[in-house]
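Example (one chain per record):
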Amino acid sequence: MSGLHALVYVSRAAHVLSLVELDAVLQRAQVRNAQLGVTGVLLHTGGQFMQYIEGPADAMGTIYGSIKADRRHHGIIELLREEIPEREYPPWSMAFRSSLAWRGGPAGQNSGPALTAVALSRPALYEELQFPGPSTSAARTLLTKFWNRARAPAAF
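Predicted structure:
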């Protein structure tokens, strides 16, 4: 095998996070992940997070330990942990999408440098989360369902 590992978890924000606070989370993750060779995507909507990270086992342990100690969220539930043959998201030290980021307009109108530079447009995120063909990974399925559920209108 490749020695690469993947992890998907969900959690709930400890308080309502502003775009500035989300930007700080994203910037820190991008720097740390780039240093440790970890890539992934972080989704945020309705006070909930879902994150997918991938990389070498030792780096994943370091990063996940930091994630679990972060007091800005709680109720972490690990959904998937597995060895993977190759990266799902090789170019992203940490891609990010928040429902907050598109309520007010396009990604370019968000405050904060990391949100402006790295936040994915809705079409780009949709294309990246939709894995063409029958080889859909469990991680992409979880991310897509989380994002689509968050975007669906509330049932009455």
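Caption: The CA atoms of residues 39 and 91 lie 7 Å apart.
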